[in-house]
Amino acid sequence: MAHSSVVRVEERPLSSREAELTHSLTSINPEWAGVNVAALRIIGECRCGCQSVVFAKPPEPQSVLAVGHQNLVGEMSLSIRTASGDDTISVLLHYADGSLSLLEVIWYNFPDPIPDEWTELRREITIR
Predict the structure, then answer these.
(1) pTM for the whole thing?
(2) Residue 42 lies in domain
(3) I need a surface site. Which of 9, 22, 40, 74 has the fewest CB within 10 A?
(4) Hey, which residues does 90 pair with through a beta bridge?
């Protein structure tokens, strides 16, 4: 959590949106499909309005094949419709040393925060 806009928060479960995005990316990647998303906990949040979160490290690796490595589990591009028009959000699910580490949400209209409400128009997922 070295980035200046990421702050430590009291450990909490994932929101429904965080859980859905994480599950979508883990379930399509065979190496990560067995991750129990309901057991994940959040320990950090970005305060810039992007809605990125940092996961707590679990007691055991979630993927033994990924121990000693860091990379992306997958990437998602969401085409959305908001009150102000159509837009795009990118979601990257990172891992480090065998466990999920960061759900990174990229909003291209920074510094405006991601709207709380949107309608998803299309979703494209790429696994790593």
Answers:
(1) 0.92
(2) 6-127
(3) 9
(4) 77, 106
